[in-house]
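TA notes, week 10

Several of you asked for a full example with nothing omitted. So below is the full record: structure tokens for the whole chain, then the designed sequence directly under it. When grading your own attempts, check the secondary structure regions first.
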């Protein structure tokens, strides 16, 4: 019959500085299934090293180790973890229970890494604790339990996946006499049920409870005595009666377990977690705010441009803006408007004549800007009519004059919510009938001047006194025509008509594009600063996670001892880093919305419009930062040696 455990000429050496220490020196040993064995020896004798090798927490430097006839030599870290899950249960002197977890959760931990469904492992853990007399302590945390109770929780955890082989390292060393005897009685009962129990101790009274006592000294076995015949059956136990879930479901189970564990770790160090998130919060808030500011500015520019008229070109006398001779240039005339209206790339043309005059009504007398326009002026410039209609050019049989007021002028001339339609006003010395009221453009919200619109023929003949000269032309470009090409064609046509270029063209579309380019450049510049902040925040997350790995090294060793794969440890810390970054991003997004509510009024000077894309993009960025900067600490945790991790203070 193949022995359950067999080691042959096993050596284990450690390098300490320039010295090589041999902890095990050619140890050979065979243990049958169902035995109750005590390995005894003084401190430094090598008994703990032997236990670590037996439990697949460590591997020999030389020699052969077989479990059930299967060689352990050369197995990968994950294959060794599988052996620990399937065959071993560990009982430690210091219990190694996780403080944030309840008794049930501590016991159920090995089944998580075995891929057992949540309800099945909870039932199993509750059953084991009830059997060990802790049925009333299921939801108690380790700090709420006595030493003996904590050790019984540790025993239940060792049995969670079956515990075919139970390795007890000084199981009574931290207990009083009564609790120690209770634990030894439980171990003997487990042995009687068929478990193979190996006790490592320096106490000969504890060893006296075993059927076989192996003494080790200076890394060698010096005696191997059987004190009584084995009372246990040589039965190999299956880990769990419940069926484990599939591979994909097992991964999902481990992820669903790792996420709450990460949240508990974050909650256990709230201040540190918040300080870790601070860089992410600031970076995300800056990115979202800048993107909102850029989008708000872009939409404000588009709104202002649309109020100036979609795809419009304005022609003014003079060679350029600020030309001092512009007032003396009279070559811009109605014939130019008629010529432009005939071009295929032009949808409409309206003449412009500007004047300032005294305007009187029955209730008020004030100074206003008089705009001489054509019938298409309001359509071309996107000005909304509130009531009434537009002005029309007077014909040969039409002698009356018409005027359209903007809403502010209407209120000033006709206070008390009186309707101005059909009322007569005096524009300078010209009587005019009010036929419409238009909405004042938002782009002119800061302008306090009052605006009145009349036919350009009336202004030139009866107000300004310039019978033929125009103050400007506004051209609406036909759909599908590039405004840049239309501008070049207009310049060419007008230059031929005038014989020289004594005018300049203002392209609202080119202005819009220039403003959009400037807005994008500023957004990119400020976003770059915000991204740097995010990178700094990511580095902060990495540093804190490295500290967390150092602080939780024994926890990592425990998880490995109960069967966690390296990928499980990697996921545990990677998920924690990602959750920290995602939580920081949510706080940062909330902060950005707060900033937008306080100073980002869409109608104000710094409009902020936070889009769903900006929010989603920020969450994705935070997730990627967590993955990127959390990987190194998580990898360091996963690469830890379980023996070294368990021995760290």
């Amino acid at each position: 019959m193949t022995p359950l455990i067999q080691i042959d000429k096993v050596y284990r050496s450690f390098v300490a500085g320039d010295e090589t220490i041999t902890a095990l020196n050619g140890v050979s040993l065979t243990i049958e299934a169902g035995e109750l064995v005590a390995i005894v020896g003084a401190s430094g004798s090598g008994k703990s090293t032997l236990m670590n090798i037996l439990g697949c927490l460590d591997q020999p430097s030389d020699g052969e180790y077989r479990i059930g006839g299967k060689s352990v030599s050369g197995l990968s870290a994950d294959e060794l973890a599988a052996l620990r899950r399937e065959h071993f249960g560990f009982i430690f002197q210091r219990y190694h229970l996780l403080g944030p977890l309840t008794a049930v959760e501590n016991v159920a931990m090995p089944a998580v890494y075995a891929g057992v469904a949540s309800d099945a492992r909870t039932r199993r853990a509750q059953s084991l604790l009830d059997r060990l007399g802790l049925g009333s302590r299921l939801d108690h945390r380790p700090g709420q339990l006595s030493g003996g109770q904590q050790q019984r929780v540790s025993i239940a955890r060792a049995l969670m996946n079956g515990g075919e082989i139970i390795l007890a390292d000084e199981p009574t060393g931290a207990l009083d006499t009564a609790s120690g005897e209770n634990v030894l009685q439980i171990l003997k009962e487990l042995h009687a049920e068929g478990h193979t129990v190996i006790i490592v101790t320096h106490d000969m009274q504890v060893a006296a409870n075993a059927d076989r006592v192996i003494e080790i000294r200076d890394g060698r076995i010096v005696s191997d005595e059987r004190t009584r015949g084995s009372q246990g059956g040589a039965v190999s136990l299956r880990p769990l009666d419940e069926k484990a879930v599939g591979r994909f479901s097992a991964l999902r189970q481990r992820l669903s377990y790792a996420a709450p564990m990460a949240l508990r770790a974050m909650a256990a160090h709230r201040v540190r977690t918040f300080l870790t998130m601070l860089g992410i919060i600031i970076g995300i808030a800056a990115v979202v705010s800048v993107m909102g500011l850029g989008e708000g500015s872009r939409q404000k520019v588009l709104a202002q441009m649309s109020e100036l008229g979609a795809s419009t070109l304005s022609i003014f006398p003079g060679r350029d803006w600020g030309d001092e001779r512009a007032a003396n240039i009279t070559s811009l005339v109605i014939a130019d408007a008629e010529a432009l209206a005939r071009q295929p790339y032009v949808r409409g043309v309206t003449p412009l004549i500007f004047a300032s005059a005294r305007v009187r009504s029955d209730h008020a007398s004030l100074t206003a800007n008089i705009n001489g326009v054509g019938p298409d002026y309001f359509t071309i410039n996107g000005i909304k009519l509130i009531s009434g209609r537009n002005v029309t050019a007077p014909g040969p049989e039409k002698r009356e004059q018409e005027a359209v007021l903007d809403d502010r002028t209407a209120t000033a001339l006709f206070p008390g919510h009186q309707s101005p339609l059909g009322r007569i006003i005096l524009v300078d010395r010209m009587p005019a009938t009010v036929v419409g009221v238009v909405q004042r453009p938002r782009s002119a919200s800061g302008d306090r001047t009052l605006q009145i619109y009349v036919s350009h023929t009336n202004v030139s003949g009866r107000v300004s006194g310039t019978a033929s000269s125009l103050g400007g032309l506004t051209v609406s470009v036909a759909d599908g025509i590039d405004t840049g090409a239309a501008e070049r064609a207009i310049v060419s046509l007008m230059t031929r008509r005038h014989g020289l270029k004594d005018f300049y063209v203002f392209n609202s579309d080119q202005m819009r594009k220039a403003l959009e380019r400037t807005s994008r450049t500023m957004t990119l510049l400020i976003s770059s600063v915000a991204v740097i902040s995010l990178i700094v925040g990511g580095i902060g997350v990495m540093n804190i996670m490295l500290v967390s790995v150092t602080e939780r090294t024994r926890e990592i060793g425990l998880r490995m001892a109960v069967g966690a794969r390296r990928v499980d440890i990697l996921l545990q810390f990677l998920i924690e880093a990602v959750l920290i970054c995602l939580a920081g991003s949510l706080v940062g997004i909330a902060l950005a919305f707060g900033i937008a509510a306080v100073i980002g009024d869409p109608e104000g000077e710094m409009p902020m419009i936070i889009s769903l894309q900006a929010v989603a993009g920020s969450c994705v960025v935070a997730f990627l930062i967590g993955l990127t900067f959390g990987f190194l600490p998580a990898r360091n945790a996963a690469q830890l040696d379980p023996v070294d991790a368990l021995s760290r203070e």
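The longest strand covers residues 346-360. Use that as a sanity check on your answer.
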